[in-house]
Design a protein that fits this description.
Elements (H helix, E strand, L loop, with lengths): L1 H11 L2 H8 L12 E7 L4 E5 L8 H6 L4 H8 L3 H4 L6 E7 L18 E8 L6 H10 L1 H45 L3 H22 L2 H16 L12 E5 L2 E5 L3 H13 L2
Antiparallel strand pairs: 1-2, 1-3, 3-4, 5-6
Helix pairs in contact: 6-7, 8-9, 8-10, 9-10
Length: 269
């Protein structure tokens, strides 16, 4: 379709306009004129789906419609050890070209096996069949290490991985709220100083007299504050509520870290 539109524009415009168009950087995306064909591995072989059908082709379909047999024949030649690596919950989508002549275009060549892989649909994202197979292949010791990580360390790793994104949004909120604090606090400078002093004083008390868990939490929250500007970034504003694409949002800046700290200080949690 893109090539057709380009040809139509060429025929309807003058040569100078067309040359000027070619000087502009652009990406032309061309949809191959071909039939859709889908393949899904089963425990006993493959299921095949013709264009627009949710039900797999049975023997009657294949007997009546020989059109897809060239593509089907290819999958019957794939070695068993290779097919076993294809996840059972993946459905492979192809453009299927039996002939290089289509309704509008004649292609110079046909793809190998008449198939062009266009997409993969994951039917059951939570299916752990492939993960379990990989663990078995790794051996007993490595498999035990992976299981230990999954049970004991995955939550900690998740927090470590998500932390840079949290810090980015907290820092953004801190900067925006700092610029807006004069509009939302009666005496921002005095209140800011009071908060800074309170956080430092109470945090030091917990460090000196709190239990191990309390100290760890306080240190963690102080480190979070440090990453987004330190205690000096604390302002006397909880946040700003705004509407974005019809949804109510709240930007809180340093409030999350302060809230956690005050909870530890006041209630020991």
């Amino acid at each position: 379709m893109a090539l057709q539109n380009l040809r139509t524009y060429y025929q309807s415009s003058n040569i100078n306009d067309f040359v000027s168009l070619l000087d502009i950087p652009c990406v032309v995306s061309e949809k191959i004129q071909a039939s859709s064909f889908h393949v899904k591995r089963t425990k006993t072989g493959f299921e095949y789906f013709k264009s627009g059908s949710k039900n797999s082709m049975d023997r009657v379909d294949r007997t009546m419609v020989k059109y897809y047999e060239s593509g089907i024949k290819y999958f019957s030649t794939i070695l068993k050890e290779l097919t076993e690596d294809m996840p059972l919950d993946w459905k492979f989508g192809f453009d299927y070209m039996l002939d290089n002549k289509t309704v509008d275009i004649e292609y110079d060549a046909l793809p190998k096996n008449h198939l062009i892989l266009t997409h993969i649909q994951i039917l059951k994202p939570n299916d752990l069949t492939q993960v379990k197979k990989v663990i078995r292949d790794l051996g007993k010791d490595k498999a035990a290490a992976i299981k230990k990580f999954d049970k004991e360390d995955v939550a900690k790793k998740y927090k470590e991985n998500i932390r840079p994104f949290e810090d980015l949004f907290l820092e953004l909120g801190s900067v925006i709220l700092k610029n807006a604090s004069n509009f939302v606090a009666a005496n921002p400078a005095a209140e800011m100083q009071r908060l800074h002093t309170q956080i430092r004083t109470e945090a030091d008390k917990v460090k000196k007299g709190g239990d191990v868990k309390q100290i760890e939490k306080v240190v963690s929250e102080l480190e979070r504050l440090e990453r987004i500007g330190g205690i000096e970034s604390i302002i006397p504003t909880e946040g700003i509520v705004f509407i974005y694409k019809g949804k109510t949002m709240k930007l809180t800046g340093t409030f999350a870290a302060i809230n956690q700290l005050m909870g530890i200080i006041k209630y020991g949690r």
